[in-house]
Amino acid sequence: MLMFGDSRGIRGQLKADTASERLPGDIVWIDLLQPEPWEIGFVERITGLKVPSLEELSEIESSSRLRARDGALYLSAPLIYRPAPDQPISTPVGFVLTRDRLITVRFAELASFASFADRPRPPDGPPITSAGVFIELLEAVVDRLADALERSARELDTLSHRLFRKGPSGPLSRRRSVGEADLRVILRRVGHNGDLASKIRDVF
Length: 204
Fold this sequence. Notes:
The protein is α+β, with helices and mostly antiparallel strands. A seven-stranded mixed beta sheet has the order 2-1-3-7-6-5-4, sandwiched between helices. Helix content is 43%, strand content 21%. It has one domain: 2-Layer Sandwich (Beta Polymerase, domain 2).
């Protein structure tokens, strides 16, 4: 899917002529979600920029995540999304930033992108630039990660109380049975939160 955002903060699918060699001058953001080959070709033709592939964005070395080429800044980051509850998964996301436009390339729906796109904007506010979109997107990503870390910290605190501060509440055999069941749940939740923290640490 190919989406466009203009300097007024309006985002949508532009009915662009795929044979055209240019976009309207007020387009500052081009968002590629699970792009088709023709969409990549169209964006590369009208911008003169290389759209990074999934393989390039999946490079894990930190030296491969940020580079400058042909007057553009290329950044990649493994962002987190949840296709199902308690299932955080990393997905590579690419940013290509120039003075005039920001190109984003992603392969999953991301709540941070949705929250940024849905932000209300004053009609008489200053025009948005490509750098402004880039900064606000990163702020939305950081906000989502901070929320996830806060939820994880609260859950780990609750688990700690269950494990270390829960007193006896019945016959020995019953306490042992309940304790073993509790330990299995606690271990799964600790493992889940450890996995989440590891993925968040890898983002930037």
